[in-house]
Amino acid sequence: MSVEIGSLLTRSPEIRHGRPCIVGTGISVHRIAIMYKLGLNAEEIAREYPHLDIAGIYAALAYYHANQAEVEADIAADEAEADRIEAEWYRTRNEMVARSSPTTKV
Fold first, then answer.
1. Measured between alpha carbons, how far is 65 from 71 in angstroms, rounded to an integer?
2. Which CATH architecture is the domain 5-100 placed in?
3. Could you tell me the pTM of the whole model?
């Protein structure tokens, strides 16, 4: 019995903002692509996520390679948002520290 490759991935607006995921998991193609870009191959990714089927990992990698510009844009947008959140956190933290620090008058 053969498996239709498209049946190994799914997308739903309620899961990972509608990004494609390996069926039956919350693991997105985006996450697999990041691990792949870090130098892990499909078998190494499977060791990191033993609940994933190797065929699903290869389907995610195939999707990534077929839609690389889309996936890379998602990754870049996520990184930019993380940078923005981090900068806001540091700005807020520094403001709080400045307000709570006793001022020295000469």
1. 9
2. Orthogonal Bundle (1.10)
3. 0.78
